[in-house]
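Let's inspect a concrete specimen:
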Amino acid sequence: MKILQIILYVLLIPIFAGSIYLSELHNNYTWFGRCGSLITVIPIIISILDFYSDREAIFFAKHNYMRIAPNNVEELAKKYWPVKVLINSVITIIGTIIWGY
């Protein structure tokens, strides 16, 4: 699932650049507004994927299934989870502002 999340993050760049290009090309900035809706939806999709990934981890822990993970997996989760939530929130806010533009 991490590869899909990375692809979605990278996909934001051509969507944004393409919308600016199409807006300039056609002299119609509704393309830029449409881009905002996609920029808003992508972080939400990433958050949903994270949610189901966490649910899977809870299921494995509850039913005593073994997963191969580094010993410091909880430290890494505590360290990077707030950063990921912040990034997704900022991207969603930017997308919403563009969408409302």
